[in-house]
């Protein structure tokens, strides 16, 4: 008998000890690759559904019931016919799934109409629907891809949606709300002191109307200028020194910003240091005030003389 073994009473069935079972369970190999694949598909489904939802909002507002059906076919393609993703664009499968469901559901939606609406989506290119892989080394339009590849591969599954017992709808991916989608105040980017993000309310707004107090405005999707401006943005983001903002506007060597601070007596200080005399700004204000006073006195004299006459 081995040390530590337990003697079973007569007639008891011989079963493995709980200790042995727990050891075997703890020694079961884990598969980190499966976790990575699960994370990849989770992100892929979120992206795919977000793109599909946007395209449906352009084309199928009169048929909202089709969106979950199209998503079910789209998700089935990504999960079970994943070889169709090789060397192809995700949006090519999305447009094909939309066209297939609309056809079996007798909704009049031409592929040309889908492509026209697709052009209005962000991050699109004509190559996506004009240059689609058909066979190895051979490319053609997306309608050729649908007829010769997509439809042939998924014909049985597509026809099921026209039957009285269609496939079970796939669950809709949970899209996390972005912390930056707030309607009012801009939000500070985590880890940065000087970078804030706010939604663009109207594309026709001028930068002065959108951010009247900003030193810098970056509009995604528009020409920004020479590459050295991006380097200055990186310097500004990585540094808490706000002088880089001024350098970005003026296009010159960064200089320390001077801030006016009013003390109890009403005198101005620049950067906390006392000035030997009135600053240039104060002098100009004084001159303007003096000129205005002289003009008012002159007008009062002219009004008095006119009354005497």
Summarize the structure.
Helix content is 49%, strand content 6%. It is mainly alpha-helical. Strand 1 (132-135) and strand 2 (138-140) form a beta hairpin.
Q: What are the SSEs and their pairings?
A:
Elements: H1 18-26, H2 32-59, H3 66-80, H4 90-104, H5 111-118, H6 127-130, E1 132-135, E2 138-140, H7 142-160, E3 187-188, E4 196-197, H8 207-210, H9 228-238, H10 243-250, E5 260-262, E6 268-270, H11 280-308
Antiparallel strand pairs: 1-2, 3-4, 5-6
- Biggest sheet record: 2 strands, antiparallel
User: How would the global form be characterised?
Assistant: elongated
Number of helices: 11
Strand residues, percent: 5-15%
Instruction: State the helicity in percent bands.
Output: 40-55%
Please report the distance between the alpha carbons of the first and last residues: 136 Å
In words, what does this structure look like?
The chain has 309 residues and is mainly α. The chain contains 11 helices and 6 strands. The protein has helices at residues 18-26, 32-59, 66-80, 90-104, 111-118, 127-130, 142-160, 207-210, 228-238, 243-250, 280-308, and strands spanning 132-135, 138-140, 187-188, 196-197, 260-262, 268-270. The strands form 3 sheets. The protein has a two-stranded antiparallel sheet. Strand 5 and strand 6 form a beta hairpin. Helix 2 (32-59) runs antiparallel to helix 3, helix 4 (90-104) crosses helix 7 and helix 9 (228-238) packs antiparallel against helix 10 (243-250). The chain is elongated, with a radius of gyration of 35 Å. The relative contact order is 0.06. Mean pLDDT is 75; it is low at 1-5, 7-12, 14-22, 24-29 and 257-278.
């Amino acid at each position: 008998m081995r040390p530590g073994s337990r003697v079973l009473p007569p007639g008891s069935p011989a079963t493995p000890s709980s200790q042995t079972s727990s050891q075997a369970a703890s020694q079961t190999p884990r598969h980190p690759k499966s976790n990575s694949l699960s994370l990849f598909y989770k992100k892929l489904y979120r992206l795919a559904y977000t793109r599909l939802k946007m395209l449906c909002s352009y084309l199928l507002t009169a048929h909202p019931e089709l969106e979950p059906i199209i998503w079910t076919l789209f998700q089935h393609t990504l999960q079970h016919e994943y070889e169709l993703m090789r060397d192809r664009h995700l949006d090519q499968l999305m447009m094909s799934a939309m066209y297939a469901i609309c056809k079996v559901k007798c909704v009049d939606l031409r592929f040309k109409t889908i492509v026209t609406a697709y052009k209005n989506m962000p991050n699109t290119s004509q190559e996506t629907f004009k240059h689609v892989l058909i066979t190895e080394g051979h490319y053609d339009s997306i309608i050729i891809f649908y007829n010769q590849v997509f439809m042939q591969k998924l014909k049985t599954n597509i026809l099921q949606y026209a039957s009285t017992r269609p496939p079970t709808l796939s669950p809709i991916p949970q899209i996390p709300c972005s912390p930056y989608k707030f309607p009012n105040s801009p939000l500070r980017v985590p880890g940065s002191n000087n970078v804030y993000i706010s939604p663009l309310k109207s594309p026709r707004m001028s930068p002065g109307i959108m951010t009247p107090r900003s030193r810098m405005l970056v509009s995604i999707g528009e020409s920004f200028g020479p590459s050295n401006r991006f380097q200055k943005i990186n310097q500004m983001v990585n540094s808490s020194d706000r002088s880089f903002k001024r350098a970005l506007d003026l296009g010159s060597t960064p200089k320390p910003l001077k801030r006016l601070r009013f003390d109890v007596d009403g005198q101005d200080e620049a950067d906390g240091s006392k000035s030997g005399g009135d600053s240039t700004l104060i002098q100009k204000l004084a001159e303007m005030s003096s000129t205005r006073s002289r003009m008012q006195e002159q007008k009062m004299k002219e009004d008095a003389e006119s009354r005497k006459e």
